[in-house]
Specification:
232 residues; 11 helices; Rossmann fold; single chain; alpha/beta; six-stranded parallel sheet; 11% strand; DNA polymerase, domain 1; 46% helix
Amino acid sequence: MLLDAGFTLTFYDGERIAACAAQAGVTVDAGAIERTERALRIEIQERQGVPLRTHDDGGRSWLRGVFRRILELAGAPGGPEALDRAAEAVFHAHMASNVWRRIGAGVREALGRLREAGLVLGVVSNSEGTIEAMLEDVGLRPLFGAVVDSTVVGVAKPDTRIFHMALDRLGVAPSEAIMVGDSPTGDITGASSAGIAAALLDPFDLYSWVDAPRFDDVPAFTTSLLSGARAL
């Protein structure tokens, strides 16, 4: 089984972002930062037939804009220059040590259940070369037989090669695998084009038009898969 990282396994860490902003002179509540997720994801959602382009420059421009918008949505005080400065501080901290490090509720336990059921797990992420270190830091890395970061390998989803790299490392054929992630284009179209079944995590019901099984999160997907309650 292949899994995406951000908005699948881990989510942005309000405390870490708030601390970075504070160092730049902007005070914002960590809880308010984490509560921006729904509003942010509605704003950045993919539209049918219009893929979301986040990694044209390795994700740097997109990330800067996302961190700036998170601060705005969280009600961070200050004018444009202050928010720009705080967002830049968050971006630089992220590039040094990924701030998308808050493990999703029930994710660790779900991964354990999948491994106990005999599945081999891998991560395929469009990231900035920081995913493997982040997974080590939060204690998830030992659960995965392979971690493929787009910046490290030089290929980004939805390019089919990145999925095949992960499967080759796991020793699994495409027909025996499934990809789980939150991106219709990156995770679903990319995996499907690689001959891999796919499931979409769509907790805010944004993607009814996607032709794939949809679940709220990794624990819900895991329960369905292991119970055999839903065809995948």
